[in-house]
Amino acid sequence: MSGPMALEPGGAEQDTLALRTAAALRLPRALPADDPTLVVRLPRPVPDREEVDRLAAALADRIGPAVHPYEVAALLEAEGLPADVVRQRYGHPNLFSLASALYERVPRTFPEPAPAPDPWRPDTVRCLLRGVLFALPGLAYLLAAPLGQAARYAPALIAAGVVSWAWSQALGHRAHLRLATGRHEAGRTLLTGAALGAALATATAAVAAGGGPVVLAAAAQSLYLAAASVLLVLARERLLLAALTPLLAGAVPLPWWEPGPVLRLGLPLLALVATLAAAGRSLRSVLGTPPVPGARRPPLRASLPYGLFGLAAASLVLLEGRQHPYAVIVLTVSMGPAEWLLYRYRGRSVAALRATATPTGFLLRSAGLLALFLLAYLLPLTPAALLTGADPAALLFLAATLWTALLLQAFGVAWPSALICLTAAGCAAPVTLLRLPPGPAVLPLCYAAAALCLSVCVLRLLGRPAVHA
Asked: Does 365 score more than 80 pLDDT?
């Protein structure tokens, strides 16, 4: 070195090696925002309208029902659209910007939901089979009638039949309530109720006839009706048809062949034994299921109106049967198609509920459905009434009464149908049995009044949307 370095304070080196505080430093002032000198500008993305339009067309059916751009953003995110594609391909800074553009391009569309399956679609074969099963037991009377004094036994058998009919209606309702709890509980109800019903009907026949062989016939009839009720409640129609095969085998050749007293008595007894065996087997299967712990029994009064309706309906049918027995057979067979129409009415009511927007509109549709299904049920009965020699008005009004009453019961409305039918039977029975004026004209009048009152109840009670929701 050429010489010593001076280290005293205040020298020239002060400006070189001295530590300076931050306050002593003077930072350069910030550049204004509009100063273009040192600002690095990035190119802003420009939306590619063609690509956006192409994407909107591809997703139009899924963007149309959206009610907010956020729904479109969720759709794009679910499709896995990355952020760099949004910027580079479509020219939008982020996913929400692209979603807003798509939302604006696609018009709003709210398509109707796909039609739901009909929850009340009927089993056509089962309904028709039930109608046949209601009428087949009558072949037993055709086979056994020549063996005894049918006219002498008829009143006791009719009394027992009316009691069995009323009891089976109440028992069927109570068993279906128990089915909602469990099959074991329903089986216990059917076992106890069927035995009590058969005993009560047999006792009624014994009181009406004062004892004698007719009690045995009434007991056989009551046992069959009890067992058949068990099979029908448990949906064992095909098993019941198989049990009644002996009646068919003996009744079909009757116009050309005399079977003799042994077969005339043996075939109905064989059918009875087969029906009892089928009912016992079905009950054993149901009772074998595990019971539901803590299950509560429904009150007996809940099934009372169904039993009263059965009593009234049996009385009305018997009053018509005194004059035209073949018309009653036709009416019995028609109960199968009547059940099918009940299912169809419920299904069409649900469809009408989806197609209307106001209570008044639904009421009008309900009135149209009631008229349509009543017409569909009554039209085939008109030629049947003429062929059997019955009064078409009486038979059609009776059929309309029964169908509308069953329609109310299908919706759990039992008391109106029971009271109206009991009133009609109470008015018609004394006039018909005692032959009071106006005579035979009282039956169609009572049937028509009952059918009209029941139709009004249907429109008033079932014409509300809440019932079908």
From this structure: yes
